Amino acid sequence: ASGRTPLMAGNWKMNCNHHEAVHLVQKLALGLADKKHDFGKVEVVVVPPFTDIRSVQTTVDGGQLQIRYGAQDISVHDDGAYTGEVSASMLAKLGCSYVVVGHSERREYHAEDDALVNAKAHKALAAGMTPIVCVGEGLEVRKAGEHVAYTVAQLDGSLAGFTAEQIASLVVAYEPVWAIGTGEVATPEDAQEVCAALRARVAESFGDDAAAGVRLLYGGSVKASNVAGIMAKPDVDGALVGGASLQADEFGGICRFY
Ligand code: PEP
């Protein structure tokens, strides 16, 4: 919307070994070529598990594919004695363009708070990658009618310390937790309500240029059959897709929504 390039990002979560990853990326690329997908019109990103990234890199490079890729998480530390962590420079060296930070599954299962999410977003950007900063309310908050205030507060905490120019280049994903992996998709109006509030908050905190540039994605049970209605909304610039991104045809259909 409004001159911002739409972005479709497939978060594979903990699915696909590196052989399956190569197959999925190749199948996605072939399907998009068949559909005559215009990568300048809608950017396509896959976000595999860490163990697949090198294989995705060689598949993308070898086939000169226009698909971009990223990581599902990042360490706040640069290097050293942090068992199990993966650093920003390691991901950048593998050609990652994006890093998802603050996904609700990391917030819930790994107790990640806004301060940690913010620190991770800074690490990603400093290494030349674009953070995809996730926010979104749970069912109780939604039922209480506090979803806008809740997500705006998450946004404030997660975007602290960035310059207006940096904000303009970032991606924020609004993912209501009650709609993730449940088949319970938010209505286009629900997505627009929160995305409009997030953009207004960015304008208030960082200025109009930052608000005009930042890309806002919706995430939560997006499929090829429901993506067009969501994308028709003025403040929604793309989708973060979980389950449906594991099927090349379905994710290809989401990318080719126009
Ligand atoms: C997600 O976890 O980012 C997501 C949106 O999942 P799903 O599409 O499966 O609801």
TrEMBL record:
Location, primary (coarse class): cytoplasm
Known CDD domains for this protein? TIM
Which Gene Ontology molecular function entries are recorded, alphabetically? triose-phosphate isomerase activity
Would you name any one GO CC term?
cytosol
Reply yes or no: does the keyword Lipoprotein apply: no
Pathway info: Carbohydrate biosynthesis; gluconeogenesis; Carbohydrate degradation; glycolysis; D-glyceraldehyde 3-phosphate from glycerone phosphate: step 1/1
This enzyme catalyses: D-glyceraldehyde 3-phosphate = dihydroxyacetone phosphate
Tell me which EC number(s) this protein carries: 5.3.1.1
* Protein location: Cytoplasm
Pfam families attached here? TIM
UniProtKB keywords: Cytoplasm, Gluconeogenesis, Glycolysis, Isomerase
Q: Which residues of this protein are catalytic?
A: 103, 175
GO biological process, any: glycolytic process
Which amino acid positions bind substrate, per UniProt? 11-13, 181, 221, 242-243
Keyword Transcription regulation part of the UniProt annotation: no
Q: Which domain of life is it from?
A: Bacteria
Q: Which InterPro entries match?
A: Aldolase_TIM, TIM_sf, TrioseP_Isoase_bac/euk, Triosephosphate_isomerase, Triosephosphate_isomerase_AS
Assembly and oligomerization: Homodimer.
Q: HAMAP family from the entry?
A: TIM_B
Q: What is the name of this protein?
A: Triosephosphate isomerase
What is the source species? Nocardioides marmoriginsengisoli
Please spell out the taxonomic lineage of the organism that makes this protein: Bacteria, Bacillati, Actinomycetota, Actinomycetes, Propionibacteriales
